[in-house]
Amino acid sequence: MVLTAYGPDGSLLGSVEKLDNGTDLGIETDAEAGIAKVLVVSRTESPETIAGLMLDYVVPRLFTTYVPHLAASSGGDVGITTAISILNLSNTTAMGTVTILDSEGQPLALAVDGSRVSSLSFELLAFGSKTFNLGPPADASPGSLLAGYARLRSSTPVEASVVFSTRDSANLVQEVGISSTPAFLTTAGAVTAKPEESKSTAVALVNSSAEDFTSVDVLLIGESQAGGVFERGSLVLKPGEHRAQFVHELFPNVAGKIIAGSLIIQGDCPVASTVLQTV
Question: Which domain holds residue 172?
Fold first, then answer.
């Protein structure tokens, strides 16, 4: 009998094999996300029976999700703030932390309720929510843009909705929203670009690994029944690195063109990503 374990993102964690009958067989992992699925395969000609199954939570699991992009700026012509609203998806209390990181994966201090912080804690009752408003710290250089991402870890599953607000000296100019996401090996998003209407699409990527470099392939698929690939790009993300680019920066050949289609993002390690439309 062979036991094969997989992580929540479908990645292979490993396998163990039992060569003789009548002995216990177990599998465990030190992967942060834990084991999500176990495949049991019999290699004998006669049927085998599982006499008992035991699941042991050696360490309470933490659920991890990402806000793949956040930004804050003040002064200059416009100012940008980021509002993160966290929702507890379970019927038990959720306790967790929000870690704010820059594009190199290092702590990024932003202003939250008048305090300069790079980490926040929360406790949400069943199906409760809480909003954190992130802005530039008081000592930030006027006009400078602070950008990065956030990692949420909690005792039960949570989801975050994010709103970026852009204001000039007197008015709200623009609001754009995204949602939090776990890290996956493959994700996709819709792409629209109409230069004459100042519409474009941006993509933000985060390497969720703290140790491994990640190669990422980005495919631009045309909006048609054939769905052919007409642009292909690749990049490498350092451990914990964040990258945010417009489609025409990823694919210079499409700059100035009208685009309708989708982006396929594939990493050799799990990547947290978001695709957002801008006007």
Answer: 63-179
